[in-house]
Structures are given as structure tokens and as C-alpha cells.
């Protein structure tokens, strides 16, 4: 009940996710089972470990069709897997809302005659 999207994954996948919940990179292969379009995320470089990627902090969402969407703020996957996946869902909605807001603002400027405005 804490993370309703678990209903969409197989029993084996669910057990693997729960067993490896403290290691987010092991959860990533199952994101596509939990979400319609989210397939992967990009982990950021760990500032404390030179040259290594963080195992908890992400900054980019990757869809099943390979479209990439940067997050406005990084997201850290910590705690229980069902809790941080719920928080990831909210962070995805927040990110989409901000991208849509920026798109509407850019689109409203098109009528002003600013031909050099970026459209994408």
C-alpha cells in the first residue's frame, strides 16, 4: 500500500527490489516495470569520491524511448525503497511541471515576434 506501483512488478522482481532497496543502482532495471515511461536515471558524480558516480543521487530521467529529461534539482534515493520511489514519483511530477511552465512561457513569447527565441 505504501508504493502502489509495486502491483505492476512480478513477485521475483518485487523481492529483488525490496532486498536491494538500499542499493538504488540495483533497483533501476525495474523502473520500467513500475512506470509507463521512465526506464532509467543518470547518477551524478560523487564529489567525495573522485571519478566515481554516486549510488544514490540522480539528475536526469531517461524514458523508454530514450528521451532524456534533466531534473531541475537532483534527487537522492535514500531510506526504504517504497518511500524513495514515492518521492521519485513526486519529483518527476515537479520536474515535468517546471518544464511545462517553461514551455508555456517560451511559447507565449512566439507571438511577440522574437524569432531568435529557442523553441526546444
From TrEMBL:
Keywords, ordered alphabetically: Signal
Domain Dynein heavy chain linker: 2-100
Keyword check for Phosphoprotein: no
One biological process term in Gene Ontology: microtubule-based movement
GO molecular function: dynein intermediate chain binding; dynein light intermediate chain binding
InterPro entries associated with the record: DHC, Dynein_heavy_linker, Dynein_linker_3
Protein name: Dynein heavy chain linker domain-containing protein
